[in-house]
Amino acid sequence: MNKENISFYNQTTIYFQNNSWIPLLILLIIAVSLRLPNLNESLWLDELWSTHVKLGNIILLGRQVLYDSHPPFYYLFMFSWIRLFGDSELSIRIPPLIFGVLSIFLTYKLALRFVGKKGAFLTAFLMSLTPVHIWYSQEARHYSAILFFLLLSIFSYYKLRESRSNSTWYFVYFGSLFSAAFSHFYVSVYLGIISIMCLSKINKTKRNVLMLNILIIVCLVAYLEMKSILGGSTTGLGHLRPFTPIELWMLFFNWFLLGNSLWNINPYGSNPSVIVHKPLMFYIQVVFFAFFINGVIQILKESKERKDLEPLALILYVFSLPLFLLCLNFIGFKNTYIERSVFVVLPFFYILIAKGITCFKYKPISIASTIFTITLSIVTLTSYFKKIDEWTVYKPNPNWRAAAHYFNNELKNTTNPLIVFTTTPATELTYYDSRFEEFEVRGLDESDKILYKAKLLAGEDNYFVKKLSFDLYDYLQALRNKIANAKLLIFYRNENNKENIYETLFANNEKTFYLIHNRYWSGNFKALSESVMKDSRFQLVGVKSFKGLEIFKFRVVS
């Protein structure tokens, strides 16, 4: 390399060191580009909680606030959003995209405190390419928003400590932490961490932060008390499972690190034998475990050398929520965990990994480790995008939009309503066509309970109780009319069998029906379909397949 080339290289290096926002901006543009595909993909069941199906009116919103297992902030946000911008697939996925990209920027800013510019940029790079973060920046749920608000609250906490006279940061801190805590109860663990940190070398700023934290706790307790009186917490959620040490290992070194994309492992069947039978995966996990442990060691060393507990905050950010879930499992609370419930740990995990990679004393090891990590991230990302029809971060989205179009075409050949049976929910069809409806009246029992308890608390003559009573009556009457006039009726029961199918058809004077098989979440479909196929009263007319879905059309012959 000649002197001119060396000079140009040095000038370029100095320029980017002095203008670090340029590579960060490029990285954020890449992050947006990776998250744009699939924004217009068909919705799946959980995403309906951001649409008119679950937030179509104030009654439905009230049911979510009182009966859903999550706190209500994101429902309230989306209730307003869809009234301004509609609830198309693209519209309801724009907020998660924005929150997701902004969370990468905040991760970079927080990483600067712990790992310097090189480590912070490596962290942001890993966040931009990891399938887990891409997934939840595209899904119309609250997880990227929770992450953004939590990171913003921690960032503003540090800003308060550095610029005590700027009262604006108090509003940012309170608003962001309140929003995060009222989007997922597990954020309360971080609320506790910040409160503990405030108890060390307490001053006016920390006292004010503690008061704000107490105010958030009081609001959470008041909300839970209201739920217990008027509604109730959702329990017995079948998608949750116990959090164990092997789950912790797979969370960190398969789901976070690899997005479950290089090796697709059923998360509901994780056990040590899965690791043993995949030696290459285990080798990669061990390598990154070494980086992870080195990061922990470096943080401990810094804390000891500086005689300051501040660096230890990163370790708390990484371990506190997983340890909380392990303790819950130990004392008997078994169904507490699914990977996305600890999604907020992801950036802190990557900061610790970056710390371990960039802080080796022997620089060539750091360089080689960085190259290996970047290469693995690119390979993982490529594998993730190739496996569009496989369970990676989570189960893929079935093409319910195409299924709704199929049923719309079927309706052109008849004037009678279509009858559909499923063993897993097919509520997505009601989003894509307003003429489609589930047979059972949703929320009838809960609505009656809410009204009954409201009358006990406020009295039957209370203006708001009377208005609630009228609104509930109108809503339920409209829903009954919609079901009575529906062009497609969905009968969803996991225990559906050939006899209740026959009885339903007889009661509705119908001879044609459809079975829908969600291949990504089958329920008891295999047993149902086999029993129907073998029954001489039914004849298979045809089968239609879409991504993740099979629709079987039958006719009654006797």
* Overall strand count: 6
Widest beta sheet: strand line-up: 2-3-1-4-6-5
Question: Share of helix among residues?
Answer: 55-70%
DSSP strand content = 5-15%
Instruction: Please state the average pLDDT score.
Output: 89
- Largest beta-sheet details: 6 strands, mixed
Rounded radius of gyration (Å): 27 Å
Shape: globular
Written as H for each helix and E for each strand, in order along the chain, the element string is: HHHHHHHHHHHHHHHHHHEHEHHEHEHEE
How many helical elements? 23
Instruction: Compute the separation of the termini in Å.
Output: 87 Å
- Poorly predicted runs: none
* Structural class label: alpha/beta
3D architecture notes:
The chain is an alpha/beta fold and 558 residues long. The protein has a domain at 400-556. The chain is 64% helix and 7% strand. It is built from 23 helices and six strands. The protein has helices spanning 3-18, 21-35, 52-55, 58-67, 73-85, 89-129, 131-138, 143-162, 168-181, 188-198, 204-230, 245-258, 272-276, 279-306, 312-330, 346-358, 363-386, 400-411, 428-432, 444-458, 463-484, 498-507, 525-534, and strands at 418-422, 436-438, 488-492, 512-518, 538-546, 549-556. A six-stranded mixed β-sheet has the order 2-3-1-4-6-5, with helices on both faces. Helix 6 (89-129) packs across helix 8 (143-162). The protein is globular and about 85 Å long.
